[in-house]
Design brief:
With about 260 residues, the protein is an all-alpha fold. Helices cover about 70% and strands about 0% of the residues.
Length: about 260
């Protein structure tokens, strides 16, 4: 009798932690606790940071794990942040009812719709360039949004809550572009990206223990810094090669549209 290897493995336990962070966050939003919902997403992200490492160490990477991780990321890094944005903005006194709730729905919708379209587009016509994400990564979009709406200083800086009416749609548009955003898998300057990741984790954990009310101000700072400086990580040759990869992806999309 043939032995069938289980589909769900140890690595997927960590993916489940990530997924449950998003589930708990949505539930906390229903209870009107967006700050703690953000904490749930951040804690869940620890699972997301470890699942790939565990899979590589155990040699258990498979298609199921990749698909499961994608679903978990979409829930925890897009749907849950959108719920947090909605929960905060529906109570922000910028507009009278029912416009206030309508604005909150619009901002949440910007995040979910743009990330969903980006995901579908990148499956149909992917940009084949290892180590680079095409368009602002959904995790950055989600964490940047969480960082802004849960930040202690947000109502008192950068135009206050009005700034979010520009920031969140702008992030949503950025995720639909094919601008290059290097990942930790990039061959050149990998040490630099890893250093940024260590500093992000270190400062976030440090501020969470020392001055937790500023946790999401730190998250906002790092997400904004990555978003505006990512292009510096590419060498001139990489930028040229990436433009060619984007052109190939666009040509593939046009060919499939005509078929």
């Amino acid at each position: 009798m043939l032995y069938c290897r289980p589909v769900f493995g140890i690595k997927d336990v960590f993916t489940t932690i990530n997924l449950m962070g998003g589930v708990i966050a949505v539930c906390l939003c229903i209870e009107g606790m967006p700050w703690w919902a953000g904490v749930a997403v951040m804690v869940g992200y620890l699972g997301d940071a470890l699942d790939g490492w565990v899979a590589r160490r155990l040699g258990t990477s498979n298609q199921f794990g990749g698909e499961y991780d994608t679903i978990a990321d979409h829930m925890s890094h897009i749907v849950a942040p959108a719920a947090i944005v909605y929960t905060v903005y529906k109570d922000v006194p910028l507009f009278a009812e029912p416009w206030r709730q309508g604005v909150a729905i619009f901002l949440a919708g910007c995040i979910i719709v743009s990330a969903s379209v980006r995901h579908a587009r990148n499956i149909v016509a992917p940009v084949e360039f290892k180590g680079v994400w095409a368009g602002l990564p959904r995790t950055v979009v989600g964490f940047w949004a969480i960082g802004y709406v849960n930040a202690t200083l947000a109502p008192h800086a950068l135009g206050g809550w009005w700034f979010g009416l520009l920031l969140i749609p702008a992030m949503s548009i950025a995720t639909l572009t094919r601008l290059p955003f290097p990942s930790h898998h990039m061959k050149v300057k990998t040490w630099y990206l890893k250093l940024v990741g260590v500093l992000w984790f270190g400062t976030s954990i440090g501020i969470a223990l020392w001055q937790p009310q500023f946790l999401f101000d730190v998250v906002f700072f790092w997400m904004a810094g990555y978003s505006f400086s990512a292009w510096l990580y590419l060498t001139p040759d990489q930028r040229v090669a990436y433009r060619h990869a984007v052109a190939d992806a666009k040509a593939l999309a046009r060919a499939r549209a005509r078929a």
